[in-house]
Amino acid sequence: MKLPTDILRMYKEIHGWVGIISGLALFIAFYAGAITMFEGPLQQWASPPTRLAPAPALEQTPDLLAKVLAAHPEAAASYTVNLVIDPTHPARISWVVAEDAEEAEHGGGTIHYASLTPGGELQVETRGPSPVAQFIDDLHRQVGLPLDHEIAMPIMGVVALLYVVAMVSGLIVLLPSLVKDLFILRTGRNLKRMWLDAHNVVGLFSLPFHIIMALTAVVFAFHDQFYMAQGIAFDKSGGPVRAAMGPAPAQGAAPSALPPLDLLAQIRTQVPEFQPVQLAYAHLPNGRAVVRVSSGDPDYNIRTPLYGLVTADPVTGKVMSVDYMPGRQDGWSASVTSFFALHYGSFGGTPVRWAYFLLGLAGAFLFYSGNLLWVESRRRRERKGGAVEQTRATRILAALTVGVPVGCVAGIAVTVAAARWLGDGATLGMHSLIYHALFLACTAWALWRGAARAGWELPLVACLAMLTIPLAGLTAGGNWDQPPSLMLIDLVGLCLAAMLAMVSQAARRRWRTGPRDSVWGTGVSLSAG
Amino acid sequence: MTAITKRPLSSRDWFGKTMAGLVLGFFLALGLAGLLRVLVNGGLPFFSARGQLSMWLMAPVWGLILSFCFLFRSSLQAWGWLFLANLAVWGLTALLGGLRL
After folding, report:
1. Closest by Cβ to A10, choosing from B9, B33, B60
2. Which residue in A146, A425, A517, A527 is deepest, having the highest Cβ count within 10 Å?
């Protein structure tokens, strides 16, 4: 396909600039996002045995609920009844105490878990399953920016828009040489050529994945603004826009709710093919009590139309909505659900989760290689301009290209491993602290040592960091009752450690033998500029 | 035919074009979402599935305009053409009675 050269040149420039601005943030989002594919097993791996008394039988739930509401009236506003008890859902009844509505809507706040002792007394714990999965999810959504949700989300939205532009411009640049270059990986003396081939081939073959991710990411970041703008422009009912969905008023409707077993019987007669695992009692913005009955993957929190969801009246058990129930959706609802499912990889079971995991890692590689190529072409341009050494800006960007991704990889590894040692003392804050300490240390190290030396030193650090995962699996929490299949997590840790060791080796060779005027060559450090 | 004599495209005007794509692209996406609402949503509640779909429509439209707005010859042209497109879409939506007013 032929395109005018001025268009190509322009889009090449645009691709470079939007890429370099968003590349590092996208690396973190994709690496952390790839890991969230196994959020459930990871949380199970990281969760200590619960201190709660064994959950009472389902028919005892009304008794437990009455005791919970007597001691904690605030739970009446919204609470959850787990039908399936497992390590990540240890309590029959749980509820969240959040500072404000905003925190509650985005999965914040303190979760309370309730059970009954053998003597029939109420037991409430705030220490539950490990928060490390939640931490990685947060990291995925706002790349570790220590900002409020309302500020971080528009920033991530801008990153997502840059990502769209990078994708379109990258495709345009690639089009003319597409057929010629597609199946070629030129591994030779010209290292830049090899990186470019790899960048192109990974980018092109995961293009459908990236189209989905870019467009859904824009929506996830800006949906509040989109809905608000549409509400202002088109909503004739003048009803409350989505942002106005506040905390449910505590209206004490809960005690009159049907006992869970009766409710389930009601649901079964109305939608027999539905397999409930959780009942979430809440109030609609208009104050009406509802129960959201969810099915599907019990490893995950209920937050989106990801899982099967049926809304019912808690008092009568009458089903109010099957908009989110798989198989009962109309084409419009199913289309909207598919956008969520395509982002979360929540279709097709385990094979798709692995595919998304690999595609996510490939995406992280795409952004990393893009940054490398940017640094490399700057070098050429600068050398043509007669410069013997690279400019300070290029050296800083090269250092960040090494420090930020490797810091992210090492930080996540150690904070995951730490979950085993921290046990049930772990908090979201602690995991964040451990991650950020490593992340910032690696970034600072790269800036201080320069890209060339940090290029092989830091992967070695990350390799050691990765080894803490199997180490923690072996040494800490040995008495934790866990299925052997979770050993896969330790194994993946080992594999990644081996890969990082190889990366370090290769970068070390380059450091020794690479050209002197390159940021990857011998002894160029920032302090020597 | 005349395009050959014009100066080649470059990323020189990137700021003006980007701003046109960001601002007018957003309004064009919003207008198209409104058009979809009035065409398929009818009197359904605001957050119905069709309503949600029209919200989703905004992301690809906005993103694609932002990606392709660099093809305009100048930022003035970008603002001009996108303004006209907005006028057409919003006018049609208003004509069909899709606006809140």
Report:
1. B9
2. A517
